[in-house]
Amino acid sequence: MWRQALGRLPALAVRGRPLGPGGGRAYAPPAERKRFYQNVSISQGEGGFEINLDHRKLKTPQAKLFTVPSEALAIAVATEWDSQKDTIKFYTMHLTTLCNTALDNPTQRNKVQLIRAAVKFLETDTLCYRVEEPAALAELQKKEWDPIVAWAEKRYNVTIGSSTSIMGPNIPASTRDTFISHLASYNMWALQGIEYVITQLKSLILSMGLIDRHITVEKAVLLSRLEEEYQIQRWGNVEWAHDYDLCELRARAAAGTLFVHLCSESSTVKHKLLQD
């Protein structure tokens, strides 16, 4: 259906196929397409803020009107479209993809299911799994990860801990309940963004530290790749591949975090940043 919608002028959708981690599925953008519009603008409709490509309304892969809850998010998405050159590189448009996922909800999950999926990551959180050997890596994990775990335990008044067992740490039920309660304070759109960040960093702890502005994107990505970075420093790497992966992960983590904050943004930006 979305392929047919893309071919119609009114349905200017970002195509995608269901794909995602943890049993969930989200839109994966196509590769590229020739730019077919000149101007990008935003307008306010009954359901929120809309994106206009010339005089056509942007639509989702399921041909729904692309409408976002805040003007700040609309401007950010419009900027993604406006920054495309002769070719539209959909894989660089993380905010647009996240909006499509929130609007179409291809996995048909409700708020409770989204929250439980996010909290389930605690069972396999990167920061909770430690090595015993080599000793240098074990010490590096302790030095870099322990402060973030300690911050999360104090911030949310929970017990998390870590383990060198393949079974991982035993996360108390009270800790899960606390995170479930905390995540329930976010709306559905923000929860989509939170889960997206978690799947990128493979860590609920790092994701909450990033969203709470306790750590930067660069720091969160570095900590999520700690073992890989250790191995690279020891054995070397294919430079271009490493740099590309690092930049991509930073871009996705940053976009997801920005998405969460903009989905919670209720104020209206008085002066449009994009003009015809």
TrEMBL record:
It is a peripheral membrane protein. The keyword Membrane applies. The lineage of its organism: Eukaryota, Metazoa, Chordata, Craniata, Vertebrata. This is ATP synthase mitochondrial F1 complex assembly factor 2. Belongs to the ATP12 family. GO terms for biological process: mitochondrial proton-transporting ATP synthase complex assembly. It comes from the Eukaryota. The keyword Protein biosynthesis does not apply. Coiled coil: none annotated.
